[in-house]
Amino acid sequence: MSDNTTAGGWVRRVRSWFPDREFFMRSEGQVRFVTVSSRVQMTAAGLGAAALFAFIGTLGAISWSQYRASTDRVVLAEREHRVADSEERLANYRDDIDEVTDDLQRRQKFIEDMVASLPADVIVPAAGDSDTAAAATVEKVSMVVPEAADLAMIEARQLAFVEGMTRFADERSSRAAAALRTLGLNPDTVLRRAEREAMGGPLEKLTTGSDDALDPRFERLGLSLARMSALETSLDALPHFKPANTRLSSSFGFRRDPFNGRGAMHSGLDFAGPQGTPIAAASKGRVSFVGRRSGYGNTVEIDHGGGLMTRYAHLSAFKVQAGQQVEAGTAIAAMGSTGRSTGSHLHFEVRIDGRAVNPRPFLETAPNVLKEVRRASARPSR
Questions:
Q1: Would 228 disulfide with which of 4, 60, 169, 349, CB 3.0-4.6 Å?
Q2: Buried-exposed string 288-325: b where 16+ CB fall within 10 A, e elsewhere
Q3: At what angle do helices 38-84 and 86-95 cross, to 10 degrees?
Q4: Residue pLDDT, tens place only, 225-280
C-alpha cells in the first residue's frame, strides 16, 4: 500500500469524525438553517488541541523548572556535607598545608569583598562559636597536624561568620518578601527577574580545591545575599512618597469620562491643585522620559528598576532631565493642565512591566511597611 493511499485513508477517517452538521433556529416566526462544515469543525478541533498541548507544555516547563531548582538544592546540600566532613578536611591539612593556607586566604578575600559590597544599613553580625563539624575538625587537626592548629582555628572562625551571615541574610529576605506580599507583589517574580539580570560579584571570585569548585557553604551565603539584595532593592524602589501635596480628586478604576460622558478606565490617581504646584518623585530611580505624550501632555516618567515605572502627566514645567537619578521627594516638575485635561491637576500612574496598577495601596501602605522592615533589619541578628 502506498504512502498516498495510507494518508488518504487517514484523512477520510478524520473527516468521518466531523461530518457536516445542520442546525435550525426559530426566531420571530422564521426558521433559519445553519450548516457547520466538516472543515470548520476540524479547524476548531485543531485549535482546541493546540491550546491544550500549549497548556500541557507550559505546565511541563514549570514542573521541570521546579524540579531543577529542587535538584540544585539537593546537590548543593550534598556538596556542603562532603566538604564539611572533618576526615576529608583533615586529609587536606595533612597533605598540603600551603594549599590550605592559600584556600583560607581566598576565603578571607571573599569575605572582605562581600562585606564591602553590602548596603550601608547592613549590620554585619559578629562571628559566633563554630559549629560542631568545624569544632571537630579543629580538634582533629590539632592532634594530628599540630603545626596547622592555628589555620584550623581561622577556618572555624570563617565558617562561623559565614553561617551567621547566611542566617542574617535569610532573615532579612523573609521580611522583605513578606512586605512585598503585603503590597500585592510576588517575591518570586522579583527573584526571577533579578536572576535574569544578574551581573556577577565577589561570589564568582572564590574557588577552592583542585577542581576549582566553589565551597558550597560560601556559595550558599552568596545565594542568600543575592536574594536579600534583590528583594530589598525592589522594596526600596516602591512608590511611597505622595507626588503632590494636594487633595486626591479622582481614583484608579472605571469612571465617567469628563469629555464624552462615557464609562472609561482611569489608569492612575488625580491630584487637583493650583498651576505650578511642585510635583515630587514617588521613589528613587532614573528619569527615563521627559517630554509630551499623546493625551498626557507634558510628562515625566521614572524607571525604578525591576519593571516598575511611575508616570507624572499634565505638567506645566519640567525640573529634571532624562537620565537623571532622583530620590523619593525630589522635585521633578510643576502641576499644570496640558494634554487631555479639564483643569490644573497631576495624573499619577504606577506601572509594572507596562501594566497600570492602582497606586493608592503603595502610597498609603508602603511608607509603614518600609519603616517596619528597616527598623527590624537594623536590629542585630542573634
A1: 169
A2: bebeeeeebbbbbbbebbbebbbbbbbbbebbbeeeee
A3: 60
A4: 888 888 888 888 889 899 999 999 888 776 566 655 556 667 889 999 999 999 99
- Cβ neighbours for 124, distance < 8 A, ≥ 6 positions apart: 115, 118, 165
pTM for this prediction: 0.59
Strand segments (E) across the chain: 21-27, 30-36, 247-250, 253-256, 263-266, 269-272, 278-280, 285-293, 297-305, 308-313, 315-318, 325-326, 331-335, 345-352, 355-357
As given in the structure block, the three cell numbers for residue 251 are: 481614583
Give the CA count within 13 Å in the CB-facing half-sphere of 33: 5
The residue whose grid cell reads 519593571 is 307
Q: Kindly report the backbone phi and psi dihedral angles of residue 121, in degrees, each rounded to the nearest multiple of 5, phi listed first.
A: -85, 0
364 and 252 Cβ atoms separated by less than 8 Å: no
Alpha-carbon distance 105 to 168, whole Å? 24
Q: Which class for 215: exposed (0-12), middle (13-18), buried (19 or more C-beta within 10 A)?
A: buried
Asked whether 277 and 246 are in contact (CB, 8 A), the reply is: yes
At 335 the three-state DSSP class reads: strand
176-233 residue pLDDT tens: 888 888 877 888 887 887 766 654 444 444 444 444 556 777 888 888 888 888 888 8
The CA-based angle 193-230-113, given to 5 degrees, is: 125
